[in-house]
Amino acid sequence: MNNTSQTIRVGLFFLLGLALAWITFEALNGGRIFKQQGYALLAGFGNLKGLKAGDEIRMAGVKIGSVQLTRLASHRVEAVLTIESGTKIPNDAVATVEQSSLLGSNYLAVTFGTPAGPLLKDGDEIRTKSTTDLNEVIAQLGNLGSKLEQFIGNMDKTMGGGESGNLFQRLDKLVTDNGPKLTETIGNLQDITGKIKNGEGTLGRLINDPKMHDELLASVSQIKGAAADARAFMADSKAIVADIKSGKGSIGALLYDDATANNLKISVQNIRDVTTKINSGQGTLGKLLAEDTLYRDAQGLMKKANRALDGLSDQGPITAVGVVANALF
Amino acid sequence: MKQCLAIIGHLGSALLLLGRSLRFTGTLLRQFPRFVEQCYLIGYTSLPIVTILLFFIGSVLALQSGYSMENFGAKQFIGTLVGLSTVRELGPVMVAILIAGRVGSAITAELASMKVYQEIDALITMNIPPERMLVLPRLAAIIVMMPVLTLIGILCGWFGGALTCQYTHSISIDSEVYFTALKQFMKNRDVADGLIKAEIFGFVIVLICCHLGLSTRGGPREIGASVTRAVVTSLIFILVLDFFVTKGLLLVP
Q1: Under an 8 A CB cutoff, do A13 and B74 touch?
Q2: In terms of Cα–Cα distance, which of B63, B94, B30 is closest to B165?
Q3: What is the ipTM of this complex?
Q4: How high is the pLDDT of residue A216?
């Protein structure tokens, strides 16, 4: 082994070591040795929940890129995403931070979006949605637990201890105090149900007698028929009302025809004139009603006629004979 | 009691050897060819065995952790486990054990035979301190070569794990997932800790082996005894120091 080649090998070896060390440290720092092919998107979040550079971006569970870097912007956090070229993301796709395991590693999930929609280009911002993380869920569960505990405590107070709300004791007292009454009531109930079972009484017969059932059915059908009639009647009425509304028929004309109404008004006027005249004793009828001379004359006439008739009836037969005689002679 | 004293005596003379060697640090540039030769022997020739060993250690680690972590559904964290355990523990320790067996034994054998055949005495007679010519280049070489070897070994371990994860049917973790998980919980600090550990191990191994080689007395049989003792002592020191160095590095924030 000659000395020069030995030196060269050692030198190369050392340089290799230095290069590897540099690459390793650079890679662990998140710097990329090989530039990833693809395009960059921007995603703004209110809370990144531990998403960090190098985490995966998945669309429907398939890796489509990785988070390049995360940075704080004004009042939000921005993640710069590197999406593999060839992956098309519509501009209505939504990105959310998801947990890939309970141990705390995250990934960015991207929805499909509308397939036909316009695509996101390099440098565009993708829409995002915040998700509830496990901590919030657990906090809410804790709230629920405390509320439940409170509720159970209240229940406990109502059921058992406490001076005012002693539900069970009061119930117990109620039952013991009204024991005989309750027994009686239950006995009565038993009686009634027994009767019903045996077919006694109206209810019993209703339940046990098939004839009753038939009759009931018949009445129901009659009621149904009546209802149908009523419905027909209602339909007729509706038709009539419709006719009236449209001005057909007398009532319709009365309601909706102005000429008829005027005629009617004139008639009413005339009637009123006539009646006023009658009242004031004008004309024959008025005199007939208002003046009793005619009545008295009539009475006198009637009396006279009565008398004359009486006279006639007295001479009845004679007259008859006389008439006959007159005829003969 | 006698043995305890012997151990303390060895410790003391090893430290004295170190002190005497460091006094000649300034002469290192003048004996650069010797330093390069030692680098070649210690570093370059150890490379194949280091890569093979660490590659398979990484693979086996991935296989075993895949088998055990499958039970609680943490397979995607195999990368983290393999990466961290390789970089923090197995890489430095395994490389150190290899160096102890391959390089340490050679150093002890060489120096012990030089001592037994009175070459060391000849050097001293010629006013050439053996520390300057024999110990210092080796120490310098191991300081330069140990991190390089360890880093290559660690990377081989990572790739071995990745390959195993990808092509073992029962695990079938994509190598991208593997390396994502590996990077997720790995800091530069972890790599630096591993390299510091390897550095300390290598330095201690070479110091022990040089000391035991130079302190050999007697005939050829003692050469073999010295080599055995050097390797055993090195291994013990590696594993004991491992604990304390790890603890010390964890204490440093």
Answers
A1: no
A2: B63
A3: 0.74
A4: 82
